[in-house]
Amino acid sequence: MVFSPKLFSCLKNYDKTQFTADAMAGLIVGIVALPLAIAFGIASGVGPTEGLVTAIIAGFIISFLGGSKVQIGGPTGAFIVIIYGIIQQHGLGGLMIATIMAGVILILIGVFKLGNVIKFVPYPVIVGFTGGIALTIFSTQMNDLFGFGIEKVPANFIEKWICYFQNVTHINWWAFGVGIVSLLIIIYSPKISKKIPGSLVAIVLVTLIVWIMERFCGVTGITKIGDLYELPTTIPAPKLPSLGVSDGKSLIQLMTELAPSAFTIAMLGAIESLLSAMVADGVIGDKHNSNTELIAQGIANIASPLFGGIPATGAIARTMTNINNGGKTPVAGLIHAVVLLLVLLLLGRLVGLIPMPCLAAVLIMVAYNMSGWRTFRMLAKNPKSDFAVLIMTFLLTVIFDLTIAIELGLVASIALFLKRTNEATVIRSFSNEIDPGDNTDVAISSEEKLHIPEGVEVYEIDGPYFFGIANKFDEIDKSVMGKENKVRIIRMRKVSFIDSTGIHNLELLCDTCRQRGMIVVLSGVNVHVRATLEKAGFIKKLGDENVCSHINFALKRAEEIVESVECGV
Questions:
Q1: In whole angstroms, how far apart are CA 79 and each of 41, 317, 459?
Q2: 3-class SS at 353?
Q3: d(CA 90, CA 254)
Q4: What are 367-402's pLDDT values in tens digits?
């Protein structure tokens, strides 16, 4: 079944014990998600409220309708770069439209059962753009960490760092001290207790320290969330995106421009959520429904922007926190959303006291955990082509654009795949005889070698016959040019599949042979390849009698053709 939310099956035998475990896990996950939701919202260029709203609305929907028992959804660091870029170019209205478009794409991927296809995105591409995002997130936090006070930081990576170096004399040492203390707390607090996340400990302690410093020590100049953002104490009312003309552009024009970004958001959401669900499956011994999960992600990304939220997906860190604290069913995810809602409604004003350098420290640790530098080092030992794809994707993400990085990374991976497949597929020739002991398409087992009749040439395709290797027969034609053979046998026992380009080139090969007075005979064609050739009308064109199941029969058929030609029949 395409859409089958896990929540409903889990509730069939739900009891008080399960609820107690889910409630405790949901409470802890909500506490963990609080600083991350706020930080991701601010880093994306929107605000803390938007981050919290996303975690509440999208987190609730993903747990309510998702295909995983323990997946926790919300805003993640992977979206920061793409969101920031969209806002810079198209504003909040453009972000809303792009997110809704991404939601529709995710739903379509799930409805058409393409969830498993996402898992085929090459690993070097994933590592490359994830590492690039991590470095970009790190670079965006320098203004708050050092307290430069730059009002408008350049979006471009290189220009951003030039701007930082130009303002190095404007460091606010109090802000920098707050950021360093926050980092140390985040790093070392897990050694005391792993139950409470270091980011939350840092935010609570550092916020209290800064408040005391300002109130009793006269320290000023440390920017806080409340200095930059207005913090409402309720969920924003839903609103539809503007359907009118914006900046001289119609909605269709805007959607066309936003299509690549929407596709990137959808791909990021699909990849991250399914990877998170797969990791969770390995820990809890369950199997998620990938298509249901993507449909739920799509609905969440349509609903979230209507309330001012940003793109959301499954978050592996929060999902693992849920599992480690006893979460068993999607109820834990629902409770996590309720906890965040209560924080927004009751503690919104306290959120405004959080220092920006402290949030910068939280995001720097997020970037470090995302960077995967150990994976970079490991992949450097793998084939150079894979590492080249990784570095290319990484650099494109950092220097140019995440959308371009993913697109070109995928193109490069496909090109490498085709190159390797092309190299792996071999076309061999047989001169005088064939050893039956080395072949699987011999009809009758025999130790005697099979003799190739005079006027017959035998070639074998070892590997898939698709557009990447179809032109290899051009080399064969050149090598046999001038020979007066009557029959060309093509052994296809090792051809696992054939595509339309392969069929087309096979037809051209037959036509070329016919013009030279040769007849093509196929040998060892498997059931699936034969069905493809029949559907394309190739078997009818070649003649059913010239498609043989075994090499013995193909040689016999070739001998008959040679005799008939010599007799002038």
A1: 10, 15, 52
A2: coil
A3: 8
A4: 998 888 888 988 888 888 889 989 999 999 898 877
